[in-house]
Amino acid sequence: MPRDDAGPDFIEALARGLDVLRCFGPHRAPMSLTEIATATGLARPTARRIVRTLEHLGYARTTPEGVVLTPRVLELGVAYTLSAGLWDVALPHLRDLVEETDQAASIAQLDGSDILYVARVEVPKVVAVNVRVGARLPAASTALGKVLLASLDAAALGEALRTPPRSPVRAHRPRPPGEIEAELREVRARGWAATDGEVAPGIRSVAAPLRDGDGRTVAAVNLTVIAAEVGHRELIDDLLPLLLQTTGVIGRDYELIHTAPQRAVRGS
Fold first, then answer.
1. Is the peptide bond prior to 2 cis by the omega test (within 30 degrees of 0)?
2. Cα-Cα-Cα-Cα dihedral of 249, 254, 255, 259, to 10°?
3. What are the residue boundaries of the structural domains of the chain, listed by start?
4. Using an 8 Å Cβ cutoff, are 120 and 81 in contact?
5. CB atoms near residue 55 (< 10 Å)
6. Distance of CA 239 to the CA centre of its chain
7. What are the residues facing 66 on neighbouring strands?
8. CATH number given to 12-71
9. Distance between CA atoms of residues 104 and 225, nearest Å
């Protein structure tokens, strides 16, 4: 389906190929050509040509049960992760934070009015929050999202809040923009955000910004807890200082790597 808002340089065929890749999910593989066509809104012959192209490039294969993606698809995400450079620095500290607090921790970035999880370290528990890397949640209802939205100027914030959400999850308690903006002013002033049951009842979270050497917020880090296990006061008094310490160390290490002299070593 052509994009009405696309400019003259927009490549529709590329967009359709990405649509096919995105239609696969944890509960949607393998998929038949008819299922792919239905999920993407493409004609079946078009879906078939795209699948054949992805097979030729090594990103998909056809099995007796249907079409499945191959591990090569991971290259697309890894290319971003490695180019950002931040995640190699952040993950060891994230693991240390999880070990010290016995709570799950995540890193997210802003994508329109959603947050997109880009890293996560879990804790084995009987009751746990089921969030995967690549998952989307509404930014204005999450601690991670509030930190990221609070880092924007007025124009960028307005644009983000006006962007139609792509997250399949909706806020447990929707709020008007004026109320959101007032809360973001508080988040901006204190430097962290907390939520209690805004996306899902019984889930609490606290988040802090991850800044580069110039003070720009490049991502946010959170700790997520089960409300029945950790009270709000404990979350703020005991866990927040550890989270702030971790984000500070990650930012420091990230800056040290980027400011260190780089020299290419050539083989003889």
1. no
2. 140
3. 12-71, 85-259
4. no
5. 14
6. 22
7. 63
8. 1.10.10.10
9. 7
Pairing of strands 193-196, 136-138: unpaired
Alpha helices in the chain (DSSP H): 12-22, 33-40, 44-57, 74-84, 86-101, 143-150, 154-162, 177-190, 232-234, 240-259
- Tens digits of residue pLDDT in 195-242: 998 888 889 999 999 987 778 898 999 999 999 899 999 999 999 999
> Residues 69, 20: contact at Cβ < 8 Å?
no
191: alpha, beta or left, given left = phi > 0 and alpha = psi -120 to 50? Answer: left
Residue 174: the pLDDT is 67
Beta bridge partners of 61: 68
Q: Which long-range contacts (CB under 8 A, 24 or more apart) does 179-183 make?
A: 180/140, 180/149, 181/157, 183/146
Give, in order, the Cα–Cα distances in Å from 158 to each of 24, 73, 144, 170, 177: 32, 34, 18, 19, 9
- Please check the confidence at residue 12 and state whether its pLDDT lies above 60: yes
The domain made up of 85-259 is a member of CATH 3.40.50.12500:
no
- Cβ atoms of 221 and 87 closer than 8 Å: no
Q: In 170-229, which ranges are E strands?
A: 193-196, 203-211, 217-226
Tokens 């984000």 label which residue?
Answer: 247
Instruction: Quick: pLDDT tens for 69-125.
Output: 887 787 676 555 555 567 778 889 999 999 999 999 999 999 888 998 888 898 876
Instruction: State whether residue 203 is helix, strand or coil.
Output: strand
